[in-house]
Amino acid sequence: MRKNRNSFTGSIGFVLAAAGSAVGLGNIWRFPYLAARDGGGLFLVIYLILAVTFGFTLLLTEVAIGRNTKQSPLTAYGKLRPKWKGLGVIACIIPMMIMPYYCVIGGWVVKYFLAFLTGSGVQTATEGYFTDFITDTSTPIGMMIVFLFLTMVVVLGGVDKGIEKFSRIVMPLLVFLIIIISAFSLTISHTDDSGVVRTGMEGLKILFIPSAESLNFQSIYTTTMDAMGQLFYSLSVAMGIMIAYGSYMKDESNLPKSVGQIEIFDTAIAFLAGVMIIPAVYAFMGKEGMQSSGPGLMFVSLPKVFEAMGPIGNLIGCLFFAMVLFAATTSAVSILEAIVSSFIDKFHMERKQATLAEGLIALVLGIVVCLGYNKFYFEIKLPNGAVAQILDIMDYVSNNLLMPIVAVGTCILVGWILKPKYVEDEITKNGEKFARKGVYNVMIKYVAPIMLVVLFLKALGIV
Ligand code: PHE
User: Fold this and answer.
1) Among 69, 270, 346, 375, which lies 20 to 30 A Cα-Cα from 216?
2) What angle (nearest 5°) sits at the alpha carbon of residue 62, between those of residues 144 and 68?
3) Residue pLDDT, tens place only, 274-327
4) Cα 142 to Cα 46: distance, rounded to the nearest angstrom
């Protein structure tokens, strides 16, 4: 083992970096939409319950594996049980698949941020702007390169002087920006062309008050599945990241406490994103405006909302895209680090070499993803019904197929082969208490694997 393994300077550095990974596009463009669609309060309550049980279990397990083995995802599983090496390989392939398209989307954010920064944000609200932009053969590639370069610079700086330092600056800024925009969003009152007045405060009710229709068995089931899928993605588990970050954690730090803090951070930002987006979209576009999520929400609907705000819209849009850029870079940094740490541990590369190698792979694949909207354009239907291009296929395979496999595998390895005691020992080795041990044991052995299998079957369109 390498003697000079990098590490975070302390718990706060670790928590901020891991929260930086967890807080990403999913918190901003999917959580608010799901919450509004699934009957407001009901989704939030189910999400919270799952976060402290299911989410806590998965996150704690990965961080514990990382801290205990002091290995990257690629090598950690094999160190625990040589026969399980293959799981490590999948856990390393996932971030390698995500990195290129995450950078492409990061490039879209850079483009919109620059548009608002230079005062021409209104343009982004014109019909067809987004489609014209992504189908262009050169600009998206250029923007992706800017984003990838930024990410590589941070990772090249190392764990403490690169990732931790960056997270310590960017995460507080992100919180600050999201609070400002949310507060603004709540003060909005807008009269539409037919004279109907809608306020941000009314929009807030849609987010928090459970709708009567949502309280039946069928919708509780759908909501639970949605909340679970969202939580799984949002915590950045099952893609090796938390193992890599855990391996840089100091042995003295309190594991369950840090994991709890990451969850609180991630969930609070998701809630705030809801408070920021739903009231504004509702006030300016009504309930129909809330039908979109993902790129459609961020790059098509929201620019229209900023335009409708009048002169202040450009400033709000600029702050918004700066905030999204922070969220996306800290996530991309964590994806890259999971791969870089794997290359370092497995192939004994230097950090610089490993970063450049993965940077090159991401660049080539990223270009292919960009060209998927023009030169390589095709349409294919995924098992879950969505019409997809290259980006969506990579997203589907990594998130919906490979990630549940890694997560179920991890639950079986820790719950049944190593036994939950493995995680307990890692947690209590400094004399710390493991308060949620009972919940953890039941979760890791039974509930989490079953839930993950259902999630997997759902992605295949089977249930
Ligand atoms: N967890 C991030 C989010 O909620 C997304 C992410 C995906 C981060 C993949 C890292 C890797 O948006």
Assistant:
1) 270
2) 120
3) 999 999 999 999 988 888 899 999 999 999 999 999 999 999 999 999 999 999
4) 41
Atom of ligand 1 nearest to the CA of 234: 4
Whose alpha carbon is nearest atom 9 of ligand 1? Answer: 236
Dist CA 454 CA 452 (whole Å) = 5
Strands (E), 284-338: none
195: CA distance to ligand 1 center in Å?
A: 41
Which residues are within 8 A (CB) of 400 and not within 5 positions of it... i.e. 6 or more apart?
384, 456, 459
Ligand 1 centroid vs 218 CA: distance in angstroms? Answer: 28
Q: What is the pLDDT averaged over residues 231-251?
A: 96
Q: How does pLDDT run across 76-121, given as a tens digit for each residue?
A: 999 999 999 999 999 999 999 999 999 999 999 999 999 999 999 9
If 0-12 CB within 10 Å is exposed, 13-18 middle and 19+ buried, where does residue 212 land? exposed
Q: Is 330 in the pocket of ligand 1 (CB under 6 A)?
A: no
Q: How many Å apart are CA 189 and CA 229, to the nearest integer?
A: 34
Residue at 69: amino acid letter: T
Least Cα distance to 359 among 108, 162, 144, 110 occurs for 144
For atom 8 of ligand 1, the residue with the nearest CA is 331
Q: How confident is the model at residue 1 (pLDDT cuts 50, 70, 90)?
A: very low
Report residue 213 CA to chain centroid gap. 29
How far apart CA 200 and CA 197 sit, in angstroms, is 10
